[in-house]
Design a protein that fits this description.
Helices cover 27% and strands 24% of the residues. With 296 residues, it is α/β, with parallel strands linked by helices.
Amino acid sequence: MAPTRSNASSSSEVKPQNSSVDVVASSPSTPIVLDYAGLKERGITSGYTRRFASLKEFWDIAEADFYKKATEYWKEKVTNDIDGMLGGFTHVHERDVKESSSFLKKVLQDVTPSREGEKPFLYCLECGSGNGRVTKNLLSQYFDYIDCEDVNEEFLIKAKEECAKVKETFAVGLQNLHTVFKDARKPKYHCVWIQWCSCFLTDRDFIKLIELCYDLLYDGGILCFKENIATDCFVVDEDDGSLTRSNDHYCYLFSKVESKFTLIENVKQKNWEKGLFALRMYCLKKSNREEHSHQQ
């Protein structure tokens, strides 16, 4: 994903790198009820062309066609290099990776590796991997195997060329990741890393993705998000269609899956560039299945 300036809010903004979305419908499931109780969220488009009085008003208007603009943007308008991944803000790469590394080192401390014979290993799924900027420079330092998902197949080809630890790649939109794992029978990953791409999901598909990750992760595994954060109001980007949420908005969505995951970290990126959206890193730890069954 890439950093991007926001002109629609007094907050700083970073815009995501690899959108990882396409226009196939989401999987059928139990309806997700979102009443946004306690959230006082107004919204605006990045060019000030439209305002929204609430999240409900925005989704009533935008949800049906939410993925179209992002799919076109990431398949047709982004170059397959680090400059494209970071939206021209290449100079923030090192500080992004440095802070992510400190965060990941901390949250991985209590994650139990699996074993191949006598050899322990850790397996990560990266969503919205783009051409492997984060894969190569961050995740490969902590994981033995990495699978990558992105909507742009050319990005994934480069990611695999750049990092020998990449095993499988999934050229599918993030909201359709369930189609890749529809026959999954057991956990596969110790960590799922999602950076600068959940902003391309509707709120309902965001929750569905977390529920999918519950099935993909080993007990005690971790689900990590690193995303732009709005402060005054949510911001809808007029170029790529992304939605920059507030910290309260993310925490509200996490509360919808609290029987399956516990939010163990919520930290702000340090030493970030002024004029960009603030960044936050979240870590959700999977409850084991026995604990989850008792909570239901």
